[in-house]
Each structure stands twice: as structure tokens, then as C-alpha cells.
Structures
1.
Amino acid sequence: MTRYLASRFVVFGAWAALFLSGLFLAPAHAHKPNESYVYFDVTSDSLTGKVEVMRRDLARLLTGEKELTEPLTEAEVIANQRFFFDYFKDRIVVSHNGKQLPLTFNAISFLGAGPDGFAKLHFDVGGLSVTPVALELAYDAIFSDIDPTHRGFALIGSNTRNGMETNEGYISLVFGPGDAAKTLFLNDRETDEMALAFLEQGAWHVWLGLDHLVFLITLLLGSVMVARSGQWEPADSLRSSLGRVILLVILFTLAQGFALAFASFSGVRLAPLLGTALTTGLIVVLALGNLRPGLITMTWMIVTAYGLCHGLSNASILDPLGADAVRVALGIGSVSLGLALGQLAVVLLLFPLLYMLRDLPSYPFVALRLGSAVLAGLALIWCLDAATGAFSGGGEAMAGAIQ
């Protein structure tokens, strides 16, 4: 059985990945809208840097108009450079051994000439005679007062101490609303700390992700029943039923890991709205299988497809690792382990309860049919909200949980 599922998974996963990459995948890129970047250039005795931020975001900062989309011209940025220098100086805090280090902004340059062009605000970090291995960094620009969906990234742009000349891909830290100061390793982040962080992120991704929980609960509702003669009947063996669920969790984890690797190393991603539509469709299909015994007989294929779609549409979880193949591979392994542990925690919490309730005469209708219909409805509402924002901000909250 295990060998059969593994072989089918490889074939299906390969074809699915090729199909999706050919038709529906959108290229990933380094600099994206609604993001700003703080680069640090390291030598043994100096630390300099720059903030790269869209000229469109600078226009919003200057005017206070959150919905403004027209970017400032380069001349307008230079004319207002003192305002921007003061703004980012107040929102970037660099510390060492509990002491805040002074920042001096001194120049502006530009990246890209179109409406999505970036301005580079250059600065020096003072108060250091010898550059340390690590610093404390706090950053709360733009998302703190203009746009809560904005994200800030910290990167080591270059480091003469370890021979790194130019880095545009490996992101060291990610900042969002409410984030406290974080440790920035100027040489590199310690491997064990990075792996632990991604393991935790994988687990929380399950527990806070509405789509993932709905899919998993829909799967569990049917896991304690078997179809016999067109009717749902209680499963006879706890061990067999639980073992099947665990096998499906492993299958999902492998499929998502495969998709994360494909997305990370090929540089392509599943477009977000399409990913939402596909995962919603798979949840509905799984729920339909609970409504009518024997309707869906290849649950493993649905789980595999869900893992592939989920991985391809959530590959941004690995963006902080940049293009370092070894670290990306470690990140995939860590986040996959976290996903597996997060799912198993949900299974071990809910499966015993559902197994005890399966003998109730009302279980096939109340839990299996009605419960699955409600879960499918939640998935459809989530999909509609993601596409249209119809539920007054609910889409942003759910997207935040999933991301």
C-alpha cells in the first residue's frame, strides 16, 4: 500500500508541477510592491547601509494619503530628502550591547525609472570602532502609520569579512506590524536558530491557516467512517483509521515539500488568487466525498493535489532564505517538519473525539454531512473574500493568518 501510494505520488506530482508551471505560474522577483529593504554593507571597521523604498510609498508618506498611487519624481524625492531622512532615522533603530548607534543619512540614488521605481536612502552607522558579529535591529517604517500590509526586509548587501560581494536575494530579517527588535547577524544567521524558526513557522502556519484547518478537519470527519453498501458505517479499527490519517498527513507534507522545492529552485510561484481557487475547490471536492458514501475513492490524490497547490502558492514563506541552495533546502526540511508536527497535533487532538462520537446515530448526518457542508461553505466564503474583499476586511485578516 505504502509503495503504491509513493509511486503514484511521484507520477502525479511530477505531472501536476509541469502542468501548473506551464499554465498558471507567475515569476518571482526580488523587489516587489509594498515592500521596503534595509541593506547593510559590512567591513571589519565600518558599517554603512541604505533603505530601498518605492517612490510611490514615499509619496504616501509625504502626503499622508494612504491610497495614493502616483509616485514622486526623482526631483521631488531629492527636494524632500530631509523629510525622508528624518522619517527613516526615527524608524530604524540599530543597537549593540544595549546602546543605540547613531545613523547619519547622507545621499539618495535611484533604482528603476518607471512608476514602480525605488529610491535608495544611504546612511552610515556610527559608534563602532570594530564591526561586531551581530546587532539588534528594529524597523517600523510605513506599516506602522501608512499601510499595515507593508513588510520590511533587512539584508546584508555585502561583507568584506566573509567575501560576499553582492547580495540581493538572501533576506536576513522580516518586519511587520508589532514586531520588536530582532538580532541581525552580520556574517550569517546561525543555522540551528534558522531551522528552529522555520519549524515553528511551519507549525503555526497550520494552526493559524483557515484553509489548512478546514481541509484537515474535513478529512478527519470522514476518517472514522467507512462506506459499505452505499451507507456510512463506523470504522472497526482505531489503529487502521488513525494510521490512514497519518499516512495522508505524510503524503501532504511530501507533496508540499516537493512544491516548495520546485518553487524555490525554479523561481516560479502559483499566482495567489489561482492558488486560493484551487485549494478551495479541493476542499469542496473532499467535502462532497463526505456527503455521499463512495463518491470520492481516491482521497490520497486530493491530498497530494492540495499539498502541491498549497506549496506553490505559499512558497513566499521561504523568501527570507534568499538564493542560498543549502539554506533553502534546510528551510524546506524545517518548515515541512513543522507542518507535519502541526498537522499531527490537530489530528491527535480531534481524532480521538471523533472516533468516540462515530457510533452515534446522528454522526453521519450532523458531523459528516452537515459539518462538511459548513466547512465547504467557509472555504467558498474565504475564496470569495480573497477575490473581492466582500466581507469588509475579512480577506486581509485571513490572508494574514495564512501568510
Note: Residues 2-29+209-402 form one domain.
2.
Amino acid sequence: MQDTRSSDGAIIRFEPSTGYVGVMQEGSISTFFRLTSQIEGVSDAQAQVTWFLNSIDGW
């Protein structure tokens, strides 16, 4: 899944099969992490997708 953050045009990508989240700004990766149950209290795949969709413009 991928979307563009409206505040600065950064590309945010989430890979549901692995939980990886990455943010690319100006052609470089600026943030990269794996979403786990310790982050934001999400543990299952659907909760991770919901977290991603709700977080796009919150970063």
C-alpha cells in the first residue's frame, strides 16, 4: 500500500505481509520501521492496515 502525505508530498509505503513502513522524501528514505504489536498497540494484519490508513497525514 502506498500514499502521498499531503503536508509535504512524502511517499509513505506499507507492506502488510511484513509490517514494514517506509517514508521517502526528496528521493531518499527518511523513515523505515517494522510495525509490531509494541508500536501503536496493533497486532493483527487488519489493525496494521487501519493504523496505516489513519496515520498517513498524522506524521
Note: The longest strand covers residues 28-34.
3.
Amino acid sequence: MSATVLSYVRPWNREQFTFLAEQLLPGARVVRASEHASIDEAGIVRRYHAYLHGPRHALNLPAAVSEPEARDVIARCRLLRTLSDQQARRHLCAMARAIEDVLEELAPTLVVSLIIDSYVMDLLHILVRARSIRFVAFIGTFVNGCYRISARGEANFFGDADPALVEELRHKLLADSYAPVFNSQSISSPRKSVYRRWAANIARVPWFWLKRVLGGDYHNYHYWVSQQQSLELLHWLPPTDPGDPGWMDKLKASSRPKVFIPLQMFPECTVDYWCQDLRVIDYYAVLDRLLDTLSKRFNVVIKEHPSVMGNRPTGFYSRLAKDPRVTVVPTYTPSNLVLKEADAVLVWTGSVGFESILRGKPVFGLAKPFYASGERFMTIDMEPDLDAMAEHIAHCQANPISVDEQNAILGHLASQLLRGDFINFGAWTADNPEHRAQIEGVVASYLSVRPISAG
């Protein structure tokens, strides 16, 4: 009997991830699992609805999911945490039971997925891990041409760093003109990108409502959470950049230490699942609280992420533009230019934190992201010690970064990277030789460090 690979897919990546699974374990039977009933060969959706609408006494958690894990899954999921405790628990238990049944029936050798961004994937990971089945989750990185393996954003190392890759990263990431591929379109045509996101979000409100009500899948995770988010981000007029054209003059006129906070996308897995402390994932409330505290001692500088501009809650930009606690930099100003003026950077998990420590800047983190290493990265909580922060800034300024220190920082990153262009995009097709070659390259680099046995 051949081995089975369970591949977690969504409509826009099912062909890509089916091909990926086939390449990882040639000859194995590939079964697709999804919260979308139309492509769910494993039967998760059918079982989920049976449990959801069945006897209430059947809605108990599988033994493999502990109570602390259940609470954590609910708190991190952008959908479940908006529901009542009773509703969230009901959906959690129904989905956990459904996934447990599928794993019992299929007994897969391998489970393949994107990085976790929902309670469905989170439960799949927990239940797969409890059965000692290999779970491989792929994610692209801010390093063009490299990807990572990570379930919840955690660091995974593949031996000593390749010196050639370290040197390549040095030349690539220290260049002022460097930008990750996923930012390129927003940077090259910023106004068009904002208008496109704004118009698309307005259309998403009725579209996902119709998909839920008329599509016969009212509790579909993707449709449900997309409807919620599009309502939260609804702007009847295109949003305008909150940045102040005179930001540079304001910074140069200030004698206070300047702390740069690059905004992150939210809700997003990089905040919801990559932050160790659950309290900090209430992004906007935590940001507001930090501004109150930090502005007492520092000149706080904020800049929107180019790929996010336009996707914030109603009123966010107008409030930010008027906020006396901050200096707002125009969105499409290169981050490296802001870094040159800043004395320190504060992040949840954003990649600007890495760009900063690599250049010798002190970085304060509300979490410890995978790239964090060395003495220049300092974790803080939601009530940071301002004196300790000021001392950390002064220490880093008094000790310029050396080449050896940069190499250590780059080595920490490089030891987690695998070569390959892993890009999760809906236009992928097996009919395109270039697309196939990309996945074949990703698979080859993964198998070179983590071989898979069919046994």
C-alpha cells in the first residue's frame, strides 16, 4: 500500500500544492484537505458540519488538544476571537473532531501546508504533531530567492550557515536599493496599488456575504473572516497617505532619541501566530498604549507598510495624521532612509527589525522573531522600562557594529534559509515550465536537508 501525503490547500493554490506534495514523496497518494468543500477530498468539511450540527455531547475536544492549547488557538485566530466564547468553542471542537477523524482514516506519512494563519491549520498542526507525523509548512521570506520551513513563525535551523550565502546576503541586504519581491508592485505603482486595494475591499463586502449565504457554505472560514475584515476596513473614499512631507525637518529639529515603529499588516499571521506573548497581538490597542508611554521620552516615528496602505480600519489614517504623539513618514519613503535618521526601531516581528540590527541599530521587540540574534535586539513588554531602552540605545551607539558581528547576525538568518523561489500565488500552473521548475527547486533544497521516507 502506497504512502499518503495530506496536502492542505485553498482554491488559489491547490494545483501548486498538489504538485509540491507529489514532488516531496513521489509515488505517494496525495489527498487534498481544505476548508473549501469543493476541493476537500479528505472530507474535513463534511465531518465538521456533521459535528457542528450534531448532538452537543459529541462536541468535546480530542484528547490530543489540551485546554491551554484550545484557548491559545481561539485567541490567535482572527475569526474565532471575534465570536462569543460558546460559539468559538463549538466551532473549535467540531473542526478538531473532523480533523482527528481524517487523520485516523488516512494515516498520512506527511502533511504539507502553508504557514499557519487560521484555527483550521493550527488544529491540523497540533493533531498531526500528536501523532508524530511530519508537518512541513512553507513560507517565502524577505530574502529574494530563499524560503523557510516554519509552522508558527518559529526558527528552524538546517546546520551551519553556508559562508557563500552569508556573503551573498551581506551584499544583497545592505544595499540601500534592496526590496523584497512582494513589495515591488506597491513601490513601483503606489497610487494604483492603493486604489486597487480600496476598490477591491468595497467589492469584497457583498461578494463574501453572497458566497456565504448563497454558496451553501455559511461557516466557511475564508468567506466568513473575509466578510468581517472587509467591513472593518471599509472606506467609502480612497484613503490618503497620512505621512507628513516635513518629517525629516521635524526629526532633525528634535533632540530626543528617535524610535521608529514600522507598521505591520494586521490581522496577519506574522502578528497573530509569530508573537510569543498573546497580549501583544491586540495590535492597535497595544500600539496606542505604546505611543502613550514612549512619547514621554522619545520622538516616535511611524511609517505605513507599502503593501498595506489602504487596508486599515476606518478612521485610522485620519487619526494617525493628527496624532501629536508621533511623526508620520510618507508611506513610500524608503525604510532605509528612515533608518538612517532613527536611533532605534521597535517591531512586533517585522523584517525592518532585521535590516536595523544588521546596520547596528538597537531594536526593541514585543516578540522574538526568527531573525533576532545578538545583543542589539532587546525584547520588551507592553510597559517598557524607558530608562533601560535609553541605555540600550546609548550602548549600541557607543559600539558601532563590526563585520564579525554582522556575519554572526547573517549566519543566524542564513542557517534557517533554503534556496528556492517559493511564492504562493494563484496564477501558478503545472503547464508552465518555469512554475514547475520553481517548485522542483524548492523540493530539491528541502529534501537535501530533510529527506523523507515513505515508510
Note: The chain has three domains: 4-156+418-449, 189-238, 240-414.
4.
Amino acid sequence: MNDMTATSKNVVAAEPAPDKPSRKTLPEHGKVERTPFSIRLTRMLGLLGINFLIPVVKLATGESPRAQFKELWMTLGVPLVAVFVFLILWSWGASQVETSLGQIPGPPQVWDEFQGLMAEHAAEREKADAFYERQIARNEQRLAIDPTYEAKTRPYTGKPTYLDQIVTSLYTVFAGFLLATIIAVPLGILCGLSRTINSALSLLIQIFKPVSPLAWLPIVTMVVSALYVTSDDSWFDKSFLNSALTVMLCSLWPTLINTAVGVSSIDKDLTNVGRVLNLGFTTQVTKIVLPCSLPLIFTGLRLSLGVGWMVLIAAEMLAQNPGLGKFVWDEFQNGSSQSLARIMVAVFTIGIIGFLLDRIMLTLQKIFSFGEARL
């Protein structure tokens, strides 16, 4: 018995004591392990849609150079080669076509006209600055003679430049897009939540969705002329309202349809939970419906903005809103030897701005979607 007791004591003594946590292995208080900068940078580039720079960042960190060079060639090299081939074909094709105004302009002529438009903008800005300086000097002289004189500054009424027309077009398309979003998203939510509302509006949506802006614009023009009277204190010109409302009528349908599809495809378990918790309609929409349907809503917004930008050019041509559409129409009516090249400048400007608007919407979609914007 004594031997067994001694043996058990030896066994107990031989068992190693549990390891105490080493102070070196414990994380320091208040410090969180951060994601490496290179990974955060690649995520940010992907979020912004600048994917061709991701292989460059990975090459800088020494990550599989062969694979990164291959990826860089696919994301940057191949598109640049395609652009180069396009410019060669354009130069060759332009020299083969004769019009009443001469040959179709090639890349050098279009670039020269672009530089000319920028020079005109700079010259017009100098005229505007000189105009305001003369007014300031005149007002100071009048105030020196008569301290009670109320100085007035008249706006510069010079010809809008090419950059001014770009700003006008962007302002107009965003106004129409905002109006379309305000109408389409709530209607889409109602259509997605209620089968009755969806059935009531479905036929109307399918009828009005394919209507051309050229058909909407005369109706919009007559309604605006009847209801909106302009004066010196008016906030908006009729041409602006005609263009913005036409953009709204043509661009709201993709957002409305995608919002309805997104809401109707929400998992029924989530909506049932909302009913069990007796959530109000507004709380259900903000806490369940919108977060779950956000990806499809943003898809609709992207499509709507693209449609609105295309529609705007035609609307500005007819409504004479001083934007890119009016610029193209004026150059076409002008019929000078420079007109074709300037129209080509506008074509590339419209395309590049449309591409940038789509990238912006795609970035916003990633930011507001779950798990996409983690940096």
C-alpha cells in the first residue's frame, strides 16, 4: 500500500505543470493587428476600378513577378495595343472618305481642335476676368464720389465655352437622374413588396419604358411652357427643365425595375422575422429591404445614369440647352472645315464622361454593398 502511494506521488510529481501564458505571446493592450499596406492598396485600387495598377503594386512587393507581368499585359498592354490599332485604322479610313466639308478628320486633326477649344476657353475666361475687373473699378469710382451708391455687378454674358457646356450637361443629367431616382426607388420598393401594386404598374412600365426621348421632348416642352413662366428672378431656364425632365422620363425605368426585382427576391425568412418582431413599415424598409436589395438597386442606378447621359445629348439638341448636345448641333449647322473635327472631339468627350460616370457608380455600389469595401 505504501509502495502504491509512493508511486502515485511520483506520477503526480512527474506531471508537468500547466503552461502559464507567456507575457510575450499576449497581444499588447489596445493594439490590433493591421492589414499590410500593400493589401489595403490593392483593395482600394480594385474598389476604384483601377485594376491595371494592382499588378504593379504586387510587383513592388515581389509577389510572383511572372504572374504579375502576365496580368499587367492583360489589363494594360492588350487595351493599349487595341487603342493603337484603332488609331491606325481610323487614320487610314478617314483618308478614304470625302464629304462636302472635306475628308473625315483623323486623330491629329481632332487633337488640334481639342487644343483649340481649350485655348478658346482660356481666352474667354480672360475676357470674363477683365469684364469683372472693369466693373469693380467703375463701382469703386462711383462709391468714392457717392458713398450711398449701391454697387451692382452684372453677369458676364459672353459665349459659353466648351468646358462650360460640359459642366451644363453634367448639371442637367444629374438633375434628371436625381429626379428619376426619387421617383423610381420608392415605386420599385412598393412594387417589390406588394403583388397588387406590381400588377397594377407592370403594364404601364412596359408601355412607357421603350418610348424615345424625341417623343417625350415635345410633350415636356408644351407642359413646361404652360406651367412655368420665366422671369429675371427665375431659378431655371425652360431649356434646362425640358432637358432634365426628358432625361428623368427616359432613365427612371431601369432603376424602377431593378429595385422591384431586388426587393421581391429578398429571403422570405427575413421579412417573416420583421413581422414576428412587429417592425413598422419604415423600419422594415430601412433595416431589411434596402440593405438586402442594395446591389440590384445600384445596378439599376448605373443603367439609369448611362441611359440618361445618352438621352441628354438628343434632348439638348432639340431643347437648345447650352450643353454638349447643343454644341454638336451648332457645329453641324455651322458647316465649316473644322466642324467635323469638333464633333469628333464631342464624341470622345461624351464617351469618356459616360465611362467615368459608370466607374463612379460601380465604386459607390461596391462601397455600399456588404463585404465589398473592406480595406
Note: Residues 1-27 have pLDDT under 50 and may be disordered.
